[in-house]
Design a protein that fits this description.
- This protein is an alpha/beta fold.
- It folds into two domains: about 150 residues, 3-Layer(aba) Sandwich (Rossmann fold), CATH 3.40.50; about 60 residues, no CATH class.
- Strands 3-2-1-4-5-6 form a six-stranded parallel β-sheet, sandwiched between helices.
- Strand 2, helix 7 and strand 3 form a beta-alpha-beta unit.
- Helix 2 packs across helix 3.
- Bound molecules: magnesium ion.
- The site of magnesium ion has 7 residues, from loops.
């Protein structure tokens, strides 16, 4: 399981890539959920930013790892503010992580099947594709919402395998989420790599039990 990342890329037939925090800068999502949504919620409800943030973080924690967490309609209903509009207001902040576009171009030119495997809702996926054009570099886009299970669930992997037909032994999966990587490991995905700088505005993440790369581009060293 703890194969070195460059060897993993050489050996894989199917490369599965997470979107937010792996290909795209998680700074966008963190800005939305940790800053902008609490500010708009505070303004709409006549409370301070700190009060709104504390209250929202509790609501976030209650559904973390569930599909609802990734569904903008869910938050529109729960919070009574237009979370979809908030996303559209700041699309200029959506962007690739350093080296990610170079990496996608390089693997696209290789004989590797490349799949996007995300917990992002299809609406958010489309928004991010409209800004970045990332879909051009993938052989398939798979949102967990299509299957009804988040990547944290074993049912997700079974559904993806039935749909996309991958060989676990020759599949490399890259994700910044530790619970998601644990779920993939439990399912038997052969090669797993984490991203240690999913958000360019935050410090390097240490302490993962999975082999890590700072950028997906670091997988290319020997290709
Ligand atoms: Mg991610």
């Amino acid at each position: 399981m703890n194969i070195d990342p460059q060897t993993a890329l050489e050996r894989c037939e199917t490369l599965m890539l997470d979107m937010d925090g792996t290909i795209l800068d998680l700074a966008f999502d963190n800005y939305i959920w940790k800053d902008l949504v609490p500010r708009r919620y505070a303004a709409a409800n006549g409370m301070s930013f700190a009060e709104a943030r504390d209250l929202l973080f509790e609501k976030y924690a209650a559904v973390q790892g569930d599909l609802e967490w990734y569904c903008l309609d869910h938050w529109n209903d729960r919070l009574g503010i237009d979370v979809v509009k908030i996303h559209h207001d700041v699309t200029h902040r959506i962007g690739y992580l350093p080296g990610a576009l170079d990496f996608l171009r390089a693997v696209h030119a290789q004989d590797i099947r490349v799949l996007l495997v995300t917990n992002s809702h299809p609406d958010t996926l489309h928004l991010k594709d409209a800004v970045t054009g990332l879909a051009d570099y993938f052989d398939g886009l798979h949102s967990s919402h299509t299957y009804g299970y988040a990547k944290e669930s074993q049912s997700f992997w079974a559904a993806l395998q039935e749909d996309a037909g991958f060989d676990s032994a020759t599949t490399l999966f890259v994700d910044d989420s530790q619970p998601v990587l644990h779920s993939a490991a439990e399912y038997g995905i052969g090669m797993l790599v984490t991203v240690t700088r999913p958000d360019t505005t935050e410090a390097l993440r240490r302490g993962s039990e999975f082999r890590g790369v700072e950028s997906v581009k670091d997988l290319l060293a020997r290709l």
